[in-house]
Amino acid sequence: MKPLYIRTPLYKSAEIQRRVGKTVYLKMDCFQPTGSFKTRGIGNLCQKLVASGKRHLVSNSGGNAGYTAAYAGKKLGVKVSVFIPTTSSPIFIDRIKSQGAEVVIHGKDIDESAILAKEFLQKVNGGYVPPYDNPDIWVGNSTIMDEVHFQIDEKPDAVVVAVGGGGLSSGILDWMYRWDWHDVPLFGVETSGAASFAASFNANQLVTIPKIDTIATSLGARTITHKLLEWTKLMPVFPVTVSDADAVNAVRLFLDDHYVLVEPSCGAALAAVYNQVPQLSDKKTILVIVCGGIGISYDLLKQYLSQVSH
């Protein structure tokens, strides 16, 4: 079965090196057909569900996972229903509908939309597509490192990745564990209004944060997957928290440097490098996963910049 994702480029960024004095590699998964890394993991799960006989895919998502499920369903010729929280940008709703999927707006976050999605799932006997918490999603996401391994000039001193629910980090860490990158720390970056990984890491147990309050709505998981917390026991994995302003300003800088527009959720990971957070102070070579995201436009970026400047 041909995968739905494509091989994406890896760049050594002269522009960011000039700004921060470090070697920075950018894995540009923003160039996937759906605009984000979700094509790998969500695409893999959708293909497996359809291969098992499911003819209706049901997703709950803040945006990119639902859009990818809709894209996969259209490619695979099955129905898709996406349950999306009220906090998600209208841009997600329009783009999910553009793939022919049904959109149901419900709940203030993906946890609440999941409840209705699972009730609906029983009625249609469909296949459930969660946004991040599934082994087939992690396996699909690990393919990003299969490519990096052959593209990068050297083993980096650190891997930097945005964390929402932890599905991308879990896939990357699985690869790093299997291929003996045990000496390379992974830094999972969140905005302060969606810092569920930091809360769980600091408590050494899964913590559900009370609410999501961030411009980076794609990071809006109140609880991370248990798998990411398990990886912290086996691998050097650490949380980093940045502000909404940091994330949005990193989006602007990245647009200036690389002519590519990404979501604030992706900007969070970039902000850790642009802002030279203390956790990266001794790291000379850094791999950043540019996860992308479709929930952005020029007008939205102007709006966000205005919000964070006050």
What does this structure look like?
The protein is of the alpha/beta class. The protein folds into two domains: 10-37 and 135-308, Rossmann fold, CATH 3.40.50; 38-129, Rossmann fold, CATH 3.40.50.1100. It has twelve helices and ten strands. It has helices at residues 14-20, 38-51, 64-76, 90-98, 110-124, 135-151, 167-178, 196-203, 226-234, 244-258, 264-274, 298-308, and strands spanning 10-12, 23-28, 56-60, 79-84, 102-105, 127-129, 158-162, 186-191, 237-242, 285-290. The protein has a six-stranded mixed sheet with strand order 1-2-10-7-8-9, sandwiched between helices. β7 (158-162), α7 and β8 (186-191) form a beta-alpha-beta unit. α2 (38-51) crosses α6. The chain is globular. The mean pLDDT is 95.
- Find the count of extended strands (DSSP E, 2+ residues): 10
Radius of gyration, rounded? 18 Å
Strand pairing plus helix content: what structural class? Answer: alpha/beta
Q: What shape does the CA trace take?
A: globular
Number of separate domains: 2
By CATH reckoning, the class of the largest domain would read Alpha Beta
Largest sheet: 6 strands, mixed
CATH fold field value of the largest domain:
Rossmann fold
Mean pLDDT: 95
- What is the string of helix and strand elements? EHEHEHEHEHEHEHEHHEHHEH
- What proportion of the residues form beta strands (DSSP E)? 15-25%
Strand order of the largest sheet: 1-2-10-7-8-9
In the CATH hierarchy, the architecture of the largest domain is 3-Layer(aba) Sandwich
Distance between the termini: 50 Å
> Share of helix among residues?
40-55%
Low-pLDDT runs: none
Number of helices: 12
